[in-house]
Design brief:
The protein is mainly alpha-helical. The chain contains 3 helices and no strands.
Length: 113
């Protein structure tokens, strides 16, 4: 972090952030707290498995390249080349978690104008 005007107070992942080595992990105060961005690619239902597999293989190959890994780290990110099943399970888990948070806080998805 190069901007002296910003001072991170913690990271939300279970693992330390290599870009913020002096920052504490929130999970030290809130055991088990682990949240992070998780961009990914999805395809329409019914996409042939051969196409899904080919896309996954190419993405895994690309994100394994050292220069890509290094660039992502400098951006504060890390690529994980999971399988379609692993990513689907992650989406379901995260959706259930955040739906529970929304429910517990009494929030609504309705937009008022």
């Amino acid at each position: 972090m190069n901007d002296a005007r910003l001072r991170p107070i913690g990271v939300t992942s279970l693992e330390p952030d290599p870009n913020l080595p002096a920052s504490s992990r929130l999970s030290r105060t809130l055991p088990g707290f682990d949240t992070y961005e998780w961009p990914g690619l999805v395809a329409p239902a019914g996409t042939p498995r051969a196409i899904v597999d080919r896309i996954q293989q190419e993405i895994a190959r690309i994100v394994a390249e050292p220069e890509i890994k290094e660039r992502l780290v400098t951006l504060g990110s890390q690529a994980v080349a999971s399988t379609p099943e692993e990513f689907g399970a992650h989406i379901k888990k995260e959706s259930a978690l955040w739906a529970s948070v929304v429910h517990q806080l009494g929030l609504s998805s309705e937009v008022t104008q």
